[in-house]
Amino acid sequence: MAKRHGPIFWREHVENWCRSDLTQRDYCAAHGLGERAFHRWRGREKETIAAAKATLTLVPVSVGQPDMASVVRLRSPGGWEIEWPGHSAPLLVDVLKHLS
Question: 79 CB contacts (<8 Å, ≥6 apart)?
Fold first, then answer.
């Protein structure tokens, strides 16, 4: 019976393949992976990324005078996080305005 691997195993392989210069076929051969399984998991990762992007909503906020020692953190449903020093919050507001 074939060994089953979970999402973390495949996510790491998809990420490593993206950073490599190999074709999917060559990457799978080099790592002993089934091409069909790799392709299927690559598709699932694309769907996960697309779903995370689709659920991202920018919400207008008012920004007061930040404490010089404070930190502003933005977290997405997809898991990424951006951390800015509190004193640069006005710059962050400008960036978010340009993105919307």
Answer: 52
35-54 and 7-19 helices, crossing angle to 10°: 90
Interval 38-59: pLDDT, tens: 888 888 887 776 766 666 677 8
Q: How far apart are CA 68 and CA 85, in angstroms?
A: 8
Domain map (residue ranges) of the chain: 7-54, 57-100
47 closest CA partner among 87, 78, 6: 78
> pTM of the prediction?
0.46
- Kindly tell me the burial class for residue 66, based on how many C-beta atoms sit within 10 Å of its own C-beta (0-12, 13-18, 19 or more): middle
